Amino acid sequence: MSTGTPRSVNRARQFSLVIGIVGLIVCAIGFTIDRRASCVSYLFGFLVWLGISLGCSGFLMIHHLTGGNWGYPVRRFFEAAIKTMAILAALFVPILFGLRQLYPWANEADLSMDRILQHKQAYMNAPGFITRMAIVFAVWIVGARLLTKWSAEQDATHSVEPTKKLRKLSGPGLVIYPLTVTFAYVDWVMSMEADWYSTIFPLLACVGQMLSALAFIIVLLAWYGPRTSLHEILSKESFHHLGNILLTFTMVWAYLAYAQLIVIWSGDLPHEIGWYLHRIAGGWRWIAVALLLFHFFGPFFLLLFRGTKRNPRILITIAAVIFLTHLLDVWWMVAPSLYQKGFYVSWVAPAALAGIGGIWFSSFLKQLETRPLIPLNDPRFAIAVST
User: Fold this and answer.
1) Could you say which of 23, 112, 208, 336 has the lowest number of CB atoms within 10 Å?
2) Is the pLDDT of residue 206 over 50?
3) How many helices (H) and strands (E) does the chain have?
């Protein structure tokens, strides 16, 4: 058990669970009133919190491969996040009841009028969708199980074998992660528009997941760390390292977003450009502007300065802005596929975000309390502390 868990954390876990239950009840009520709006809102909320868990898995595997000092204060946060994968799999099930509302390939009227959809029907169909969903979640759950199992074994022994296993898994794991996300996002997001495709989009989604996950963990570390035993290894240098990584992924996200835009726009193909045209129509364009300012330009220029990254308060503010802007990014990614004439946000969207998030965060905090917050018996950590 982690020592010194403050009462405020226990209260936060209980409060999150209540919020989650209430939010899901509101989603169920919304489904009876406006099915399409409720389905897209639920998908939005699900992708936000799934992205944090998957992003944390990516960073956890990078840390096991590199052994950088930046990872030790946040390793338990990453592990707690990936251990929620089974709950996320269960939370995905309601989406299966809204396939006809979300995807044209599941709608007989759209299918009968679109030759491209008919051509894709051999792949894009309900049984295939469910099968691929089950496979990717199985891969994510098994991977999370092995990463946390061997980490727990390392806590209990001075042998280096668990650490070696973690490194051996993390190498191929960093290949499997974007591969599984590709299958998932082609099904869950790209297929919302019948004629659109992009080879860059799944990788952009991965980087977005890791960027939002790191931003979320930085904010959480600043709240949780000083109250617990983590204060022993937490310093300005820790935040400086995390700030450097945040800057890196901010630039990578912007590069991939620009690469996707320039390739599609220069190709001048209607079925590709249409995806962007839907997202700059009416009020949607202001979200695009917000993403440009608060998901790249603002954080990029501020994170260039060493003093910004070494000041926890400033870094936390930047991370919070990135995370909140990422919420806009996910909504901008899914909603215009169904609401193409102008900006639209459903009253169910905040309920879905809070409902799924409340359940997820309550489980996350519960998992965080089950392990020592400082890694034990890790040979690389012992060297890092002694130097």
Assistant:
1) 112
2) yes
3) 18, 0
